Give the backbone structure.
Amino acid sequence: MSNQNKEKNESDVTEELTRVNDNIWDIPTSHAYGMNVPGRLFLSEKLMGTIDKETVNQVANVAMLPGILDYSMAMPDVHLGYGFTIGGVAAFDEEEGVISPGGVGFDINCGVRLMKTNLLKEDATPHMKILTENLFKKIPSGVGSKGEFKVTDTELTEAFLHGSQWAVEAGYGIESDTKNCESYGFMEGGNPDTVGTKARKRGRPQFGTLGSGNHFLEIQYVDKIYDPVAAAAYGLEEGQVTVMIHCGSRGAGHQICTDHLQTLNQAVKKYKINVPDMQLACAPAKSKEAQDYFDAMKCGANYAWANRQIIMHWTREVFEQFYGKDTDALGMELLYDVAHNVAKYETHEVDGKKQDVYVHRKGATRAFPAGHPEVPQQYRDVGQPVLIPGSMGTPSFVLKGGPNSMSLSFGSACHGAGRLMGRGKAKGSMNGEAIQEELARQGITVRAEKASVIAEEAPSVYKNSDDVVDVVDSLGIAQKVARLIPIGVIKG
DNA sequence: ATGTGC
C-alpha cells in the first residue's frame, strides 16, 4: 500500500470516531444501522494508525448482537479476526444476550503462563544453545505435532473436566501450580458429552504439544522493574530468569469450535437473531445450543490449562537435569497463568447494578484489580498478574490488574503485540533464516521446527508491544510491573 | 490458531 493510500485510510478511520480522551475512541451507534451500543477502541493516536476500516466495522458488528452491554470494546492490540476482532471484549446480559464462539476464537484458552526460577541471567545465557535444544527435543511442537506421551480416553475426560488440577494430580506438577493460576487451573462445569468424537480424536495425541504460529516457549530474564511492591509480591527481581509458555488447546479446541459453529449457525435461524455477519453465529445465552457450546468450550479451556501444565512440568525436568538440582532448589514456581481466548460467566456492575454477564475475551486478558475475590490470596493486595507475551524476540511484560479495569473494560486488558501483517503475506515477504541470524546477533537463540514459522512471526509483522502495553497502563486497566527480555525461544 | 488453500 502506498503511503498516500495509507494516510487516506487512517483519516477515514478516525473520521467516524468520537475521541473521548487520549486513549479512548468511540464508534457512535450512528456508524451503522442496528448497533445496540457504541463501539469503544482503546488506542493511542500512534496505534490508531495500525487499524483499518474493516477492523472498526467488526467492532461495530459485534455491537449489533442482542443483549450486548456498555460497549463493543477493542484493546490496543486489536486486529481483524473471525467475526469478532482479535483484541475484542464483549459482555452480554444473561437474559437478553448471546454466547458466540466467534467471541472466543478457534484456539480456546490460548494463553500464557510464566514460571519463575532463582537462576540469574548469567547462569543461563552461556547455555542457551543446549538448553533450547533439550527443550525442543522434550516438547513436541509444530502443526499436527504429536508426542510419545499418551493419555487414555478416561484421562482425556478427566482433563476436560478438571484441567491443570487433573494434570497436577496425575503427577505433572506441584500443588502450588493450581493455586497460582487463573480460575485455579480449570473452569467448573465442563461437559465432555458436548465434545464430539472428532475433537477427542484430535486432542488425545496432541496433549503436551506446543503447536505452531505465535505459540512459543521462551527463556527470558527480568530486565526492568516498574513497580517494586508488585514485583516483590510476584517474586520478581532484576536479572532473574523466567520461562514463558504460550499455547492453547491445539486440535481439540479447534474442533470444538468448528463443531459448535455448525449448531450455532442453525440457532441463528431458529431464534431469528439478526447478525450482520454469519461469523458471528451465536444463540441466546440460556438456550441449549449456547450452553452446550459453553460447556464444550470449558472442556477446551481445561484441556489448554492441562496442556500448559504438562509442558511446564517437562520444562522443569529439562532444567533439573541440566543444572543437577530439583524444582524446589531452582525456585521453579509458577507465577501465574492467564487465558486470553475464553468466555466467562462473571459478576460486573452495569449501570450501577451488579449483574451476572457472559464476558467474551478474544485476544484479551482478564485483569482483575487488587481486592477482587478471584485474585489469588498471595496477590490480592496488588492485583492479578497480567501476562503479555511479546512477539518473537521482543520484550514481554508482567502487569497487574489496574483500578479502572472493572469500570472500563469488564476487567480486561490487552493480550499481546497484535499482528500488523497477515500470516500469508509475512511468509511471502520475510526471510526466516535471515531473521533467525539477526535475532542471534541480539543474543536470542531461536530453535524452530521450520524457517517459515520464523518468517510468519517476524517481529516486524507485529505492533510494538511497548506501545500496546502503554495504552492499558495509562488507562489504569493494567499497570506495568516488569519487563522480560528473551534469550532462548522454542517455536513450532 | 488449524490434519495450513477454492
The mean pLDDT of chain A is 95. Residues 82, 105-107, 110, 143-144, 202, 211-215, 248-251, 253-255, 257-258, 341, 423-424 of chain A lie near DNA strand B (CB under 10 Å from a C1'). Residues 249 and 304 of chain A are 4 Å apart (CA to CA).
